[in-house]
Amino acid sequence: MMQQDYHNILVRAVNWIGDAVMTTPALIAVRETYPKARITLLANPMVGQLLQVHPAIDRVLVFDRKGEHNGLAGRLRLARQLKCEKFDLAIVLPNSFDSALIPWLARIPQRWGKASDGRSLLLTRRFHEPAAPSDRHEVQYYCDLLRSFGLSSPQSKPLLATTPQEDDEAAALFALHGIPAEAMLLGINAGASFGSAKRWYPERFGEVADRLATEWDARIILFGGPDEVGIVTEIEQTLQGQCLNLAGKTSVRQLMALIKRCSFFVTNDSGPMHIAAAFGVPLVAVFGPTDHVGTAPCSGKAVIVRQSVDCAPCKLRVCPTDHRCMTAVSSNDVVQAAQLLYEANITGEP
Description:
The chain is of the alpha/beta class. 38% of the residues lie in helices and 15% in strands. It folds into two domains: 3-147, Rossmann fold; 164-347, Glycogen Phosphorylase B (Rossmann fold).
């Protein structure tokens, strides 16, 4: 089948918010290669929210592995649903066996993805890569994957979208808390859902927020997921309540619109970091155990703060030793990086 004949395409999304942001240039490559096709994204509930109005996607089907699609019976139920949709092409972005199994069970005639995790027999076209370049960004990996199948786009930076209504609702929420439209907003994201090893310390986030907000006359907005409410509450206490704490109070869509409105962002390596980068919000990101090359914020307005230690990047969820990669990063390090970036991106000074 020729490429231009594909008219009903399923794209299996990756599972983490940050990773999903980094796949968006690849999604745009699918859209630009097949501009007349109906493109459906199969995604978990969080990633589905993230990309539900993305210009590369026509619709989202939710894959709920904890609910109706749990276990073998759930996977078979999903496969039957997909079979009824009569997709002619499935593009599998994750590398897991399970992500390729479902399109195979659904008997989608063309199934493209990376040859990994023993799933080659489930795919009709395979991306073979003996050794990945050590300095390649994840954004580039997904573009390379699609390019191996003849799909490409000049879009090389992540792209997200919100609706005008979502933007208006974000502005209304800030106004409800006495924050005017012209206010400078300093977003603070102290969480990182992958694991505690990625998290810098609440008291240091609090010190950075206090110093920068005083210097810039900014309003502080605290972000975090439902599992990070305790961490964010510690920062709120450090700031003696001089902030707006939104931890655990936003959907993914609301989070996107609120981050988009921020003037500056200080964060761990996390999904919100990638959201801020995609919206062009100047940001400073604290990196410790994670890959500061492959998963760096893909933005010209971002600075990474890290200290080189012999065991980093270990890419572990929980530090097995003394967390030296994070303890070595001081509040002064982050404040100084933020001040330099602020001068370059806010005031226009060199």
